[in-house]
Write a structure and sequence with these properties.
mainly beta, ten-stranded antiparallel beta sheet, 6% helix, elongated
């Protein structure tokens, strides 16, 4: 969906690629509505300094700009783990987008398709990871309660009940219609060397 791609591009632009060290977490969100289609997107960027590393458990402790510390476990997909050092700068960016497209009258085969991609750092590079996931679902609308703002969708494996904040979105949906949903998420983790210390002021 072109709209969703534009939303993701806008969110990427809203979060600076390289921020100042130890910035507080930044977030952005967008919603787009267009003729029976709704796309929502959210992005979060966190940056901090590594304060501790447990090589046995692969746990890394990161201190953010607010002073709070976060401990994460670097899974096997994070290559070159031995190159991580205390004082290194970690930047984590997360983007998620959900597109819903109403298909009046239904008639399509219910389905669910998932795909995953990951790109890790090359040998000799600083550790890093870019991973993405896409889930596409076509589900039948089996119940709609516009007053309560709820809708029940029956997919190929199970049914789910969803609460919709904007009840206007339900006014044109009827039992027997279908919803085509596409969920996309991406996470990027980059580790860079510790920033150099600020130069001392020159003696007068």
């Amino acid at each position: 969906m072109k709209t969703r791609s534009l939303l993701l591009a806008a969110l990427l632009g809203a979060l600076p690629f390289l921020a100042q060290a130890q910035n507080a977490p930044m977030s952005a969100s967008l919603v787009e509505k267009d003729k029976g289609a709704v796309t929502t997107a959210n992005a979060v960027e966190f940056q901090g300094i590594i304060t501790a590393i447990d090589k046995a458990t692969r746990e890394v402790t990161i201190r953010g700009g607010s002073g709070n510390e976060l401990t994460i476990t670097a899974g096997p997909q994070v290559k070159n783990f031995k190159q991580i050092k205390v004082g290194d700068l970690v930047t984590l960016s997360y983007i998620a987008a959900l597109g819903l497209d109403l298909k009046k009258g239904g008639g399509r085969l219910r389905e669910r398709i998932e795909s995953d991609q990951a790109v890790a750092a090359k040998p000799g590079e600083k550790p890093g990871l870019v991973a993405s996931r896409t889930v596409k679902v076509i589900a039948d609308v089996s119940a709609v309660d516009a007053a309560a703002g709820t809708i029940t969708l029956r997919g190929p494996k199970r049914s789910i009940d969803l609460s919709v904040k904007d009840k206007e979105l339900l006014k044109d949906i009827r039992v027997g219609d279908q919803i085509a949903a596409t969920y996309e998420e991406a996470v990027a983790i980059a580790v860079t060397p510790a920033p150099p210390p600020a130069p001392a002021p020159a003696a007068q």
